[in-house]
Specification:
two-stranded parallel ribbon, alpha+beta, 2 strands
């Protein structure tokens, strides 16, 4: 759902003349799914912009790190950021 909203927002921005759009995705905690969702978001945003004639818009993406509550268990909390020290 969040990807659909981001794509719609990008289209609305392009309609208003914006030439550089950054689409964001909020980390959900599953590394593989989060990476896939972010890649697809950027790819689909470019596809839809082109489909509707906005070929001169540059698309970038950003991952918003974990925005939810951290698990009380330190081991579970550390799984949110593999390879990082909390």
């Amino acid at each position: 759902m969040s990807n659909a909203v981001a794509i719609i927002e990008a289209l609305l921005a392009a309609e208003q003349g914006v030439k550089n759009v950054t689409v964001g995705y909020g980390q959900c905690g599953n590394l593989v799914q989060d990476v896939a969702a972010l890649r697809v978001l950027e790819e689909l945003t470019e596809e839809y912009l082109e489909k509707y004639g906005y070929e001169d818009v540059t698309v970038t993406s950003v991952l918003h790190q974990w925005m939810g509550g951290f698990p009380q268990d330190e081991a579970k909390a550390s799984l949110l950021f593999p390879g990082e020290v909390l």
